[in-house]
Give the backbone structure.
Amino acid sequence: MSFASSNSAQTYAKVGVETAVAAADSHQLIVMLFDGALLAIAKAEGFMSQGMIAEKGEAISRAIDIIANGLRASLDFSAGDELAGRLAGLYDYMGLRLVHANLKNDLGALQEVSRLLGEIKSAWEEIADDPAVLSASKAAA
């Protein structure tokens, strides 16, 4: 693939993501954050197995950024619910495990964080089926 066609494909993909974000409600945006973090971790696993250290570090940094500045930052602590505090602690733990995975080339740590994110994402998607959650999510968007 030439540089021009590669650049065009990247631009097209970016526009597609921007369009999806603009059309998404707050619930869907959180799902997109989970997907982005999981994709970054999957890429890090591949780079780790291929010995591509710089790329692995970039992918792990991307996952940490999404978890800390996307998922954790979106928590609503004002509700007085302890769930937000527990999730914040879990997201902090994931960040530490990802740093460990990067420093020690620990594939198991990447897989652990991927599993945890997958479980939380699954629960998040299940509550989307609740009509009360769905209407509140659309009202917030």
Summary: Residues 37 and 63 are 5 Å apart (CA to CA).
